[in-house]
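Minimal example, chain plus S-adenosylmethionine.
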Amino acid sequence: MKVSVALSPLADLRAAIRVATFPTLKAVWANPTLLFRPASLSRVFFGAVWVAFAKPTDEGGRGPKLSLLPHATGTVLDLGAGLGHSVGYFDRKAVKVYVALEPNEMMHAGIRERANAAGYHEEDGSLLILRPCGAEDLASIKAQLDGAGVRVDTLVSLLTLCSIPNPQQTLTRLVREILAPGGQLLFYEHVRSPLRDVAWWQGLWTPVWRVAFDGCCLDRPTHVWVAEMTDVNVATGESIGMWSEQKLWGKEGEPDEHLFWHRVGRFVKHSG
Ligand SMILES: C[S@@+](CC[C@H](N)C(=O)[O-])C[C@H]1O[C@@H](n2cnc3c(N)ncnc32)[C@H](O)[C@@H]1O
């Protein structure tokens, strides 16, 4: 494996430190208790990184998103919505309600701005920005969705499943308990590489990367977990396959030897 590929996260880390150090120090000055709350500090740091890099990252993922997000229909729940870049890819006639789940409240104004520009508004119920919670906070998500009287037809995750805690359990519960029968899971994620040397470097970088970037792990085989997901037949208690349809593809032009190796997936839940 090329040394330049193995060490590529160094350049990203340097760029992140350049853009996020000053805003992070400012936040610590305003609230020194952040120094004793590493997870919150990492969130502030990542928030500043994302303000600078969300647009180029969106542009870099335009191809996969154009092949994926026009499939979204009905009510969409966007896990880790960031600054709301997904909303511009939806077919406004097919996606009636956009629900954004974003634990980092610093990003909510950006979500609102982009959603409004795409024709989604809180006033008419077509936009719902959940009170800050993580994808793992199922009780809070359910309560907020029930309160708004919506059911989720499409679950979207763009570059977020790398960051959620207990990813396999969290995602399985989201699909089982929140996604409607016949609904879709649409994802675009960087995942663990099938190449052993690339996967080794992903594992090596992850402990550093996750501290700087709000829990982001480079070494999760998310696409495999999704494909293997099962449900429970309520009548018999037996384990059954979760999906009635599944399609997995890559990012065009992306080399196999890449620490950020992407998979794109459209999975349709069985209809009950
Ligand atoms: C790399 S950004 C991607 C943002 C957006 N999906 C996009 O593609 O533009 C990852 C997002 O996941 C969010 N995130 C971090 N931990 C999370 C959690 N536990 N549950 C849901 N989202 C989380 C971050 O705040 C961040 O907005």
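The beta strands are 74-79, 95-101, 127-129, 152-158, 179-191, 230-232, 239-241, 243-249, 261-269. The chain has one domain: 62-205+216-269.
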